[in-house]
Amino acid sequence: MSARSPIVAPSILSADLSRLGAELAIADPALDWVHCDVMDNHFVPNLTFGPIVVEAARKLTTCFLDVHLMMERPWGMIDAFRAAGADGITVHIEACPQTREVLRQIRAAGAKAGLAIKPKTPFAAIAPYLPDLDLLLVMTVEPGFGGQVFMEDQLEKVRAAAAERATKQLDFHIEVDGGIAPGTAAAARAAGADVFVAGNAVFKAKDPKAALAALHADVK
Ligand code: DX5
Ligand code: ZN
What we know:
Radius of gyration: 16 Å
Bound molecules: D-xylitol-5-phosphate, zinc ion
Number of helices: 8
Strand content: 15-25%
Order of helices and strands: EHEHEHEHEEHEHEHH
Number of strands: 8
Oligomer: single chain
């Protein structure tokens, strides 16, 4: 298991955007990140928001803003998301043939650089980039929608990344995203993950603050 302190990252994809300030008030900047899912209806079959919502979130929370770009040609938007207040920007390996160049661009903009991998993409595709990362995002559902069922088999990638991180003494977060709830979060933690994105499990709960606390308890 990673010695890193676990971080929970509520995803605003499942939040009520008409009361985003109240929704984000449950997150503690010392323990939580805020996850922003950007979708372009091309890389994934869904459309969400761009920098203006990230800019609004920036005004409402001091939490680390973890921006997950599920879009083609993300390099054209990196500076705009950084200017909007993104602290971390994650692009998909499947959308970035010039991976190293895009990671460099994210860092040059002043943000933490993340790389995400879809369920059907093999671990070998991202393995060469691990030394260049601040964060590896392992998708545990097909990207595009909240509320899907956790894919346990994806934890193999988490284990492989955690092993590489330990043997090569690398320094990056391992984040899991999709179907994270008490139980699946603990399984991901045991596999070596240290950042846990949760949409429905937090914002669709009767008491989102209690749901967030339950996730923290699950990954302790
Ligand atoms: C899915 C997004 C996730 C989504 C997770 O494509 O990347 O961040 O918000 O939602 P839940 O936790 O409901 O599976
Ligand atoms: Zn996400």
